[in-house]
Amino acid sequence: MTTLTLAELATITGGEVHGDSSAVVSAVAPMNRAQQGDVTFLSNPKYSKHLAECQATVIMVKAEQQALCPSNVLVVADPYVAFAKVAQALDTTPAPAKGGIAPSAVVAEDAKLGNNVSIGANAVIESGAELGDNVVIGPGCFIGQNAKLGNNTKLWANVSIYHDVVIGTDCLVQSGTVIGSDGFGYANERGEWIKIPQLGSVRIGHRVEIGACTTIDRGALDDTVIEDNVILDNQLQIAHNVHIGYGTAMAGGTIVAGSTTIGKYCIIGGASVINGHITIADGVTITGMGMVMRSIDEKGMYSSGIPLQPNKEWRKTATRVHRIDEMNKRLKAVEKLLEQKAES
């Protein structure tokens, strides 16, 4: 079990100690359930009234809440960021694999392995693959020919990395994800589908995290590109030749069609659908279930869809939507009549 003193927490977070710097914590807990030995945090000021009752050994708050805390305090600039850093330091998640190469793993003779590589049971590393230092490959993973994984990258169980895919350093890929599968490319000749070989690959930058059961297709000719510091949630579909810019975050269930470019620092809400061959500017936020059919040229927040309504209200709304064309014609007729009256 990992333990940290308040002084060590200050070093990790850059915070200011108020109280016993030798106080020890071993876990992070929510404020309403925290006990002795826990560290907690307050990120929303509306819960400040509960601070006096908090039982945590250490509370991380902004300076304005310090006087409300009954125990040892760590004053930080952003309690939620401090929580993330402390949670990393106290993380007890086991490694996807450890102890070198499992006896049942199959590793090609010409595959290049860096120092301290771990490969789990039944994993397959094909010819020409390159794994950097401290790479961890979970059980049942497949690493295709000439694929490259950078230092400290980790794959959980049953991840498939196709041939020629390049993944940078310090990346994390959750179970069931497929990177480098064929893009949806076909030509149609008199009703018969003709497959177009997908000759590009996928290039993923550094410090990228990809959730479980996400699919990232290889490019048709050029590569599909995920830049540094991108986070992708579970069950995303990223089609061929998509380019996702630095620092963008995409929530679960989102679908991005082919050859779309998404800028830097975008936030895409869950279950959004983004059309192909369009461009989204830097700094765009799309709220959940957004349907993006055209390019977005300016940063800002965009929404679409109809929020949940009681069924009777929704039926009325749907009926009115079906009558929009009729209503538009009537409106134009009224406008024309008013113009004629104004002219006379």
Automatic annotation (TrEMBL):
It is an enzyme of class 2 (transferase). InterPro entries: Hexapep (IPR001451), Hexapep_transf_CS (IPR018357), LpxD (IPR007691), UDP_GlcNAc_AcTrfase_non-rep (IPR020573). Residues 24-88 form the UDP-3-O-[3-hydroxymyristoyl] glucosamine N-acyltransferase non-repeat region domain. The active site is at H240. It catalyses: a UDP-3-O-[(3R)-3-hydroxyacyl]-alpha-D-glucosamine + a (3R)-hydroxyacyl-[ACP] = a UDP-2-N,3-O-bis[(3R)-3-hydroxyacyl]-alpha-D-glucosamine + holo-[ACP] + H(+). The keyword Ubl conjugation does not apply. It holds the Pfam family Hexapep. GO terms for molecular function: N-acyltransferase activity; UDP-3-O-[(3R)-3-hydroxyacyl]-glucosamine N-acyltransferase activity. Pathway: Bacterial outer membrane biogenesis; LPS lipid A biosynthesis. It comes from the Bacteria. Its EC number is 2.3.1.191. GO terms for cellular component: membrane. Keywords: Acyltransferase, Lipid A biosynthesis, Lipid biosynthesis, Lipid metabolism, Repeat, Transferase. One of its GO terms (biological process) is lipid A biosynthetic process. Catalyzes the N-acylation of UDP-3-O-acylglucosamine using 3-hydroxyacyl-ACP as the acyl donor. Is involved in the biosynthesis of lipid A, a phosphorylated glycolipid that anchors the lipopolysaccharide to the outer membrane of the cell. Homotrimer. HAMAP family: LpxD. This is UDP-3-O-acylglucosamine N-acyltransferase. The lineage of its organism: Bacteria, Pseudomonadati, Pseudomonadota, Gammaproteobacteria, Vibrionales.
